[in-house]
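QA checklist item 7 of 12: single-chain prediction sanity check.
[x] sequence parsed
[x] length recorded as 298
[x] structure emitted
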Amino acid sequence: MNKPPRKHNKATSASSSDDTPPDNQDLEENPATATITVTAVEVTELTEEEQRDRPHLEKKVERAFFEAGKALIELRDRRLYRSTYKTFDEYCLDRFGYNRSRSYQLVDAAVVVDNLQKCPQIVDILPTAEGQVRPMTKLEPQEQQEVWLTAVELAGGKVLTGRIVKDVVQRIMERTKVPNTYQIGEVCQILVKDNPELRGKGGCWGIVNVVNDFSCSVRMWDSEYAVGLQHLKSFNYLPAECQQMQVICDRISRVYSDLLEETVKSLLQLLGKVNRPYLTAVEEKLLTLLESEYGRIP
């Protein structure tokens, strides 16, 4: 005869010796009573050699943008790219991934830092980033030194940002209040520098339409732009030459449209960069052909 199955007894007490939890169960059930052992890690003092190396390496990091700018200046001036590239801009883009704007930001920054180093008061407080220097590139060397010393004082030992430098530069520009000497009809070259609104217009020419206190309204092949005085450079053309450029600008504007083929737009944009007050015979034929093809002759 089979015996009936045995019934399992229920646990009757948490203190029963048979119910002692495993070693890690107390930690899971009551973390507050757990004891955590932390192994102390001894931080050793820097050796004399390490103490010498640290500021040297930190200085290298801080001067990286300056060294890059100095190297680019030498590569450009000695034309060390000429064996494999036609232009410095093409070389920088392909070799370093720098477009024209970035390359010249570093070049201009290196020039400013070189100037700041000539001031005895600035020897130990030189810029550590290109963005700190960018607002000063338009100023004269003495003004650059004045701006930097003022910005360092305003920063009060904190990180010196490009915004602080830009504010100081703005004060100097307002203080000097250089008069606007441009005239309506004058032909000027566009200097982009650090103005993102003029991107793609560097080296182009435009006709001054409106003269304001600190800017001009300049008409170019595709539109009209408000341009600060620091972003303009007169070609100093004679009145007759300015009138001739006005005619060329009108002709290009009548043909130009964002709907045109890229090759046609590129050609018109190149005509908008000629640095002489006339078109060559070939350029004249090309523009006449485009006027005829796109029916924009008045």
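[x] summary fact logged: Strands lie at 187-190, 205-211, 215-219, 224-228, 232-234.
[ ] second reviewer sign-off
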